[in-house]
Design brief:
The protein is of the alpha+beta class and about 375 residues long. Among the domains are: about 140 residues, 2-Layer Sandwich (Gyrase A, domain 2), CATH 3.30.1360; about 80 residues, Aminomethyltransferase beta-barrel domains (Alpha-Beta Plaits, 2-Layer Sandwich). The chain has nine helices and 21 strands. The strands form five sheets. It has a six-stranded mixed beta sheet. Strand 18 and strand 19 form a beta hairpin.
C-alpha cells in the first residue's frame, strides 16, 4: 500500500520515490516527485551527464486491427502515411472539429495491424474515450487497449542526457544491438532482457539524447534501482519542466489545450494540410489559418520572473506568455509566448510584471539543445 493520499493516483514507482526522500506533489491528480533534493542539480545532470524521470503516469495505448492506419488518417493531424518502416515514430495532435487540441501524442508504428500511442497523463481517459467515439463513428473496428492499468500495465522511465544511452546499455545490454544505430523518433521492442520485454524509444522531451523505456509495471522498480546503481540520477517534475522549456517543447495544458489552435502554438510542422485525406479539425484549421506566432523570450531587465499568462506589449498588438521559468543553463529568465503576426526575431517587446513593463528580446526556439545554448 502506498503512502500517497488516497485521492491521488500513483505510479508503480511511488514507493521508490518516497524511499528516496523525494518531495511529492499533486500533479494533475497524480502523486509525483517534484525533486529529490536539488532541482538545479537534477537539471544539470541531464544537460551534462545523465538523469532519469518516472513517466509511468503517461499512458500507452495499443491500437490493433485491419484498418488502424485508415483510422489514424482521420483521427490525427499529422499524416501517418509517413510511417512506412516498422519502428518509426511520429509526433502529432488529435484535434476537435473546431480545430483546437484534444491532446498531443506520439505514434509508434510496428505493423499494419498494430500502432502504439503514448498520450499525456491528465488527458488519458479523455483521449481513450475520444478514440473510442471516433472508432464507433467510423465503424473502423479497431481494438483500443490502454496499458497503464491492469494486468498488462507498463511502467515508463525516460533516461536523458549525453551519457544516457551508454547507461541504458549497461543495465539493458540486450538492447544495444537493436538500438545502437537507432535514429531519433524510432522505437524497438526487445524480448528477454533482465527485466522482461522492453520497449526502447528515442523520442525524448528534454532537448538531450536518451531513451524512453517501457517494461512491465511489475519489473519497473527493479529496473529503476538498477539504473540508480549504474549511476543514473533520479530527477523530478521540476527539472523536467525547466529542461523541456529550454528545449522549446510544448506542455499540454500550459502551451496548448482545447481552446488553442495548434498553428498558433508552434505546431504547424505536425499538421498536414496538403494531403487529400481529411481529419478531424482540418476544415477549421484551413478556415482559421494562423493568427499568432509561437516564439521565445529572454528577459533583458532585472525585476521579475517570466510566468504563464503575463501580458506582452508589442508594436503589433498584445501577446501572452504560455510558459516561463528561470533557465538554469542560461542563468536568465526565459519564456514561451504567443505573439502577434508581424513580430520578428530580434525585436524588443515589453512584459508586464507587477505593473512594470520590462524589456525582453524575441528569440528563435529552442533556447538550449544538446547541452548548447542557442538563443542569445
Amino acid at each position: 500500500m502506498t503512502q500517497a493520499a488516497s485521492t491521488l493516483q500513483v505510479t508503480p514507482l511511488n514507493n521508490a520515490h518516497r524511499a528516496a526522500g523525494a518531495k511529492m506533489v499533486d500533479f494533475g491528480g497524480w502523486d509525483m516527485p517534484v525533486n529529490y533534493g536539488s532541482q538545479i542539480e537534477e537539471h544539470h545532470a541531464v544537460r551534462t551527464d545523465v538523469g532519469m524521470f518516472d513517466v509511468s503516469h503517461m499512458c500507452v495505448v495499443d491500437l490493433k486491427g485491419d484498418n488502424v492506419r485508415g483510422f489514424l488518417r482521420g483521427l490525427v493531424a499529422n499524416n501517418v502515411d509517413k510511417l512506412q518502416v516498422s519502428g518509426k515514430a511520429l509526433y502529432s495532435c488529435m484535434l476537435k472539429p473546431e480545430g483546437t487540441v484534444v491532446d498531443d501524442l506520439i505514434i509508434y508504428f510496428f505493423n499494419e495491424n498494430w500502432f502504439r500511442l503514448v498520450v499525456n497523463a491528465g488527458t488519458a481517459e479523455k483521449d481513450v474515450a475520444w478514440m473510442n467515439a471516433h472508432n464507433d463513428a467510423t465503424n473502423a473496428g479497431i481494438t483500443i487497449t490502454q496499458r497503464r492499468d491492469g494486468a498488462n500495465a507498463y511502467g515508463l522511465i525516460a533516461v536523458q542526457g549525453p551519457n544516457a544511452r551508454a547507461k541504458v546499455w549497461e543495465v539493458l545490454p540486450e538492447t544495444k544491438a537493436a538500438s545502437a544505430e537507432m535514429k531519433p523518433f524510432n522505437v524497438v521492442i526487445v524480448d528477454n532482457t533482465a527485466f522482461g520485454e522492453a520497449m526502447v524509444a528515442r523520442t525524448g522531451y528534454t532537448g538531450e539524447d536518451g531513451f524512453e523505456i517501457a517494461v512491465s509495471a511489475e519489473r519497473i522498480t527493479d529496473f529503476w534501482n538498477a539504473l540508480i546503481a549504474a549511476g543514473v540520477k533520479p530527477a523530478g517534475l521540476g527539472a523536467r519542466d525547466t529542461l523541456r522549456l529550454e528545449a522549446g517543447m510544448n506542455l499540454y495544458g500550459q502551451d496548448m489545450d482545447e481552446t488553442v489552435n495548434p498553428l498558433n502554438a508552434g505546431l504547424a510542422w505536425t499538421i498536414d494540410l496538403v494531403a487529400e485525406r481529411d481529419f478531424v479539425g482540418k476544415k477549421a484549421l484551413q478556415e482559421q489559418g494562423q493568427t499568432q506566432q509561437f516564439l521565445g523570450l529572454i528577459l533583458r531587465e532585472k525585476g521579475g520572473i517570466l510566468r504563464a499568462h503575463q501580458k506582452i506589449i508589442t508594436a503589433h498588438g498584445e501577446g501572452e506568455i504560455t510558459s516561463g521559468t528561470f533557465s538554469p543553463s542560461m542563468q536568465e529568465a526565459i519564456a514561451l509566448a504567443r505573439l502577434p503576426m508581424g513580430v520578428a526575431i530580434g525585436d524588443t517587446v515589453q512584459v508586464v510584471i507587477r505593473d512594470k513593463q520590462l524589456n525582453a528580446s524575441v528569440v528563435k526556439l529552442p533556447f538550449v539543445r544538446n547541452g548548447k545554448v542557442l538563443a542569445v
